[in-house]
């Protein structure tokens, strides 16, 4: 078998386990040194590929790979950058394939979400159009869980675990503080168009009255009256109310709740959805209110990784290498669920071109009839994804994340001028 | 030795380890059944004592105590309530001592911060004035680390560990996202008057260029120009900048930064310090900005407890029982540091009356000369407090916190009408 060089890169918002996929790609490719020569990584995704900013991962020892597998964030750097359509910017693709050719790269593995899968599809089509012998494989990753064709997306399970634990712990705090005056706590989680992380906070509750009492998802238009009625009833019953809100919830007219406090000139975005919801409750019902916005913390929590998520992140990385070696162009390894309990899953391959432009949202049968919580079907789906704990090593009281030293490959080409 | 009944209660904002103190109090008191009869807990602190809302902890089995020791929040309920001065509301104290007398309570242990120590001092003085044979002991607890007379406050070490880990992990995230455009991340932590938690995020960094690059504490008047200059220089050097800000930072004129966006009528508080700082950077320097507000999550993170903090929370609980049995009225067990490295500490006792009205802030020699970071002396002080990990048991992917069932004691008195 002729040896070819492989390029791996990370794209989009990073996760707690994207480096686990990276480590798995490198380990699997090393095992197949009959088929794969140099294993490159690009800095900052496709930008590094265009800029010929490449790393030779051969410098990473076994200890480095082990450390990499348990480090959150994107060790090689990520980006938010979409290639232009090939018919609009041929020069961009000329450059990309010049870089590939200069380094003998015939395999390109791109680790990301929906936008990154679109990049995979574009690069694959451009290679075929040019007759460049490239195999492009997508490696799924997103905390948003919105990639079609896979039962879940690596990265989501750990974010979901983080959010559920956050709600559980904050719920105990607010319950202990609730006495004479009603108290409300709002947790804002990521999710612009899909409420998966918000839905997962339902896993914090073991009883019907446990937090979260309300879950607001972008899939359901925000109904202020119905929402406030449930908040009020919950505070009357329990003395407090805990609410999870996705950052992207919208009203029936399609406007974002997080935009509601723009000033009259539209210049100032005053706060996110969590703050708006907390202030709304305070203004209408008078309760004391707190809100938390974990922001990056929820997708970078290497200290609270789901073991299932970690295993799946590794599995898609390994499977992507196998697909590349087998010459399966423009595919993405995906998770197929075989059973909920016991949870069993396997890797299958999806055609990237068929899923790249789609977005997987929380389905109707996962949302309670009143739109303010999830169903048991949602719990059955979500529960296995947060199962198991993978603890990092600690040093000095904090996780001992060790960023490997990355050695850049000498450039062969002139500097890129976009 | 005559047996007397003991009353334990929790007060003020709760922590990840206040229940560890509670479990230690109960365990230590049980061991001394020669001296202590019934071990009561009041619901919601002094409010439950006034309301005669008492729990007999005898119903808690060994498993319950074990679970209690690892559950965040206040299992018996907390409160924010200050007793009136005795000369202003004798009826309040009449009621309190009527409840104590009705249940044979001669020992009162109050677990809280500065406000709670003031309650201890008031109740102690009132008991002496009335000739009631009560021994009052304070049990220190606060994430704010602002209790005088103790090297650190139980609860702080775990909040500090949470904040340091949050900054470490979010820092890896933002570093991987920083490429073409500068990015800024702001972490807002608790601390209205004292910057201890903010200072502790310095422990996230192993190298000079690692996050956090700036730490804003309430002890230092906020200097917008100096701050923005360092943000700008950091983004130019690294491509990103991570900032920790205490919620209570103020300008030189004493106004809170978090109030800067009040509208002209003063009605709307638009955001906290973190949001204000992030928006300031965006407005002046144009960088992409994110901010995180862990809020309750930082003081309720039972999944990320400092082993040192947990041990100290248990130690002050046990020592408080010893003090009560020894008849040491109006004292508080405190931590005295014997050495930094190896970290060694012991329990000493402080006169509550002498420390109740004080507030311990970050000292000048812990703050870097430019006011925008901490010194090595601060790191030496802080490091031991976040050391070691205590993991809770997990079930279903989240910590298996089990709130013990609490049985209320039949009331002996008529209902309390304040």
Automatic annotation (TrEMBL), chains A, B:
Its cofactor is Mg(2+). Its main location: cytoplasm. GO terms for molecular function: diphosphate-fructose-6-phosphate 1-phosphotransferase activity. Non-allosteric. Substrate binds at residues 142-144, 190-192, 247, 296-299. Residues 8-323 form the Phosphofructokinase domain. Its EC number is 2.7.1.90. It catalyses: beta-D-fructose 6-phosphate + diphosphate = beta-D-fructose 1,6-bisphosphate + phosphate + H(+). Diphosphate binds at residue 13. SUPFAM superfamilies: Phosphofructokinase. The record marks 141 as: Important for catalytic activity. Keywords: Cytoplasm, Glycolysis, Kinase, Magnesium, Metal-binding, Transferase. Mg(2+) binds at residue 114. The active site is at 144 (proton acceptor). The keyword Transit peptide does not apply. InterPro entries: ATP_PFK, PFKA, Phosphofructokinase_dom, PKF_sf, PPi-PFK. Homodimer. Catalyzes the phosphorylation of D-fructose 6-phosphate, the first committing step of glycolysis. Uses inorganic phosphate (PPi) as phosphoryl donor instead of ATP like common ATP-dependent phosphofructokinases (ATP-PFKs), which renders the reaction reversible, and can thus function both in glycolysis and gluconeogenesis. Consistently, PPi-PFK can replace the enzymes of both the forward (ATP-PFK) and reverse (fructose-bisphosphatase (FBPase)) reactions. Belongs to the phosphofructokinase type A (PFKA) family. PPi-dependent PFK group II subfamily. Clade 'B2' sub-subfamily. This is Pyrophosphate--fructose 6-phosphate 1-phosphotransferase. It comes from Aromatoleum toluolicum. The gene is pfp.
